[in-house]
Amino acid sequence: MRRGDSAPGGLAGGDMEDGGVLKEGFLVKRGHIVHNWKARWFVLRQNTLLYYKLEGGRKVNPPKGQILLDGCTITCPCLEYENRPHLIKLKTRTSTEYFLEACSREDRDAWAFEITGAIHAGQPGKVQQLHIQRNSFKLTPHISLHGIVDKMHDSGSGIRPSPNLEQGSTYKKTFNGSSLVDWLISNSFAANRLEAVTLASMLLEENFLKPVGARSSGAVRSGDLAEQFLDDSTALYTFAESYKTKISLREDINLSTMELSGTVIKQGYLAKQGHKRKNWKVRRFVLRKEPAFLHYYDPSKALKGTSREISSK
């Protein structure tokens, strides 16, 4: 959430009124001692990142804690947790590490960009460079596509294919477009997402990768190299030599699988009131279409957790 936006769930407060807030919203934070994950309301200021507990649908003052940004380093994408692909890692001047999870790749990147700008607020030249990097493209010369593919296959640091579902069909040994873009950036093959997308398109063009399913296959047929690869969590790809045909789902497939086959059109964190106890908890909501369903998840659990249905049609 950017300055001037209204906070969800009645969470607007004094922080928005003093003009010092750069960004605020929900993130899921890993605990320091017990490494459990809990949703917190974060408020980014020029020098600090504050986080608050949630009670009764509102943030609780004073803050639960704060992260001092002076001398802080940021890692994004952070791939240290396989089942949490939308992580940001902050390391303070005293080497304390914070792991923060956003609800989507777009939300994660928006937070990372704003936090990075706050870290370098006293260096106007650095902030200007960040804006240029975010919107520019410069492909590294003499790239070895074979070297990239070899690294992708590495058992320790490579990208790990897994079964994925698209439009009611399950595909073996696949990975989504956003995960590959994250991997290319984290392994320094690309400096930004635009470079990574172009690199991935080159891997497709040279038949190192194959599209899997309707979304990614349709993009490949677009004819434009810059648009052939989709930086999207619902677009699937696989290694060319390990390509497997889809496994058609049985006719007696359960409803929950069909519910999850729809295209994701919006997702984000919201504070939801319980049906029985009327308490408030943060949930990750995902809105899909064709078929249309709105599901919510406990964000303290890994991404593969159980969902609940709110409505469908």
Q: How does this model look, in words?
A:
The chain is of the alpha+beta class. Helix 5 packs across helix 6. It contains 8 helices and 18 strands. The chain folds into 3 domains: 8-135, PH-domain like (Roll); 145-248, Winged helix-like DNA-binding domain superfamily/Winged helix DNA-binding domain (Arc Repressor Mutant, subunit A), CATH 1.10.10.10; 256-312, Pleckstrin-homology domain (PH domain)/Phosphotyrosine-binding domain (PTB) (PH-domain like, Roll). The model is unreliable at 2-6, 8-19, 130-141 and 243-255 (pLDDT under 50). The chain has helices at residues 14-17, 105-119, 124-135, 145-152, 177-186, 193-205, 214-220, 255-259; strands at 23-30, 37-44, 48-52, 54-55, 58-59, 65-68, 73-78, 87-91, 97-101, 162-166, 169-176, 209-212, 236-239, 247-248, 263-273, 280-289, 293-297, 307-312.
H and E string: HEEEEEEEEEHHHEEHHEHEEHEEEE
Q: CATH topology of the largest domain, what is it called?
A: PH-domain like
- Give the name of the CATH architecture of the largest domain: Roll
- Highest CATH level, the class of the largest domain: Mainly Beta
CATH homologous superfamily grouping of the largest domain: Pleckstrin-homology domain (PH domain)/Phosphotyrosine-binding domain (PTB)
> Helical amount among residues, as a percent range?
10-25%
How far is the N terminus from the C terminus? 29 Å
Q: What is the typical, i.e. mean, pLDDT? A: 77
Treating each run of at least 4 consecutive H or I residues as one helix, how many helices?
Answer: 8
How much of the sequence is in beta strands?
A: 25-35%
Give the overall form. Answer: globular
Structural class: alpha+beta
Report the count of strand segments.
18
For the largest sheet, list the strands in their spatial order.
Answer: 6-3-2-1-9-8-7
Low-confidence runs of at least 5 consecutive residues: 2-6, 8-19, 130-141, 243-255
The biggest beta sheet reads: 7 strands, antiparallel
Overall structural domain count: 3
- Radius of gyration, in Å, reads 21 Å
